[in-house]
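Before relying on records like the one below, remember that each one covers exactly one chain. Contacts with other chains, cofactors or solvent are not represented anywhere in the record.
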Amino acid sequence: MAGGSGERFWPLSRMKKPKQLLRLTHPTVTMIEEAIARVEPLIPVDRILIITSAILRQPIIDALPHVPEANVIAEPAKRNTAPCLALACSVINAREQGDACMVVLTADHFIGNAEDFRADIQRALSFSETHPALVTMGIPPTRPETGYGYIDMAEKSKPHAIVKVSAFKEKPDFETALEYVVSGTFLWNSGMFFWRTSVLQSAMMSHLKDVGSKIVDMTLAITSSDHSMLASLFEAMPNISIDYGLMERAPNVFVLPASFPWDDVGSWDALERMQPMDAKRNVVQGDAIVVETSSSIIVNAHTNKHTITTIGIDSVVVVSTDDATMICSKDKAQDVKKIVATLRDLGRDDLL
């Protein structure tokens, strides 16, 4: 899945160059390039599909010249993850002409150990091949994070054991998140899934019929190259997430606790967890001089000669590009998308 807009990384992230096309976790490689490279040893590139938005299809094709263009698929309209995955299921069904295993990954997450990641994928795939199950990957929490959803396993699991999900929990407050972490039975919801297309289709028909009922017809539309019919079917689906629409409702949901470091790289403050810091716990990228500055994130992305200087600040994020500068307190990093909304309301499309 690569359709996200990455608004929390403005001003570096833009409509045609969102988070997945940025070099946030690697100095020379974009996040989507990293995502493809991680799974290529396990899944041939000609069997990797990228579902994205219409506006991002060409930029992604340009960024990934070794991926077949036909594998970069634009959603006919902006919906959510449930319609996105129904579309992916339809494409797979049309190509395979029958049931197939489907791995759902994201294009913009940090994965700390690619080898362990692939081993976990193989475990989840093996289980989904032999069980009529919807399998997800859960991340053992390392802090009481309030920005993630949680998965309740009800009891502690053994290493590499796939267990039945007891419940999904919405983003908690700090005290509840702390209870989750201490209990040892909760995992972060990573948004990665494993199932057979027939199992997904059956589950959607039972619990999310407005989406599941379109899969057969979308498969026929794809097979016959009827783009108008495909667009009509897709646009008729509700804007609903796979978590809320299906995973929280279905009885056959299982989870594998991940064995690799993970981060969703959700906002600028995530760089602290992945980038080296100076002696004052600052993350500094690009030409910058910091004086009496601590626990801050300074990103200079100017293409021309330009120097950022700071003095006497603490816990601040400063990001500067050729045409815009964003400054916020670090605890407001999640709210940068409000700036994007304001720019949109003001008609400042030149900055979007």
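The mean pLDDT is 95.
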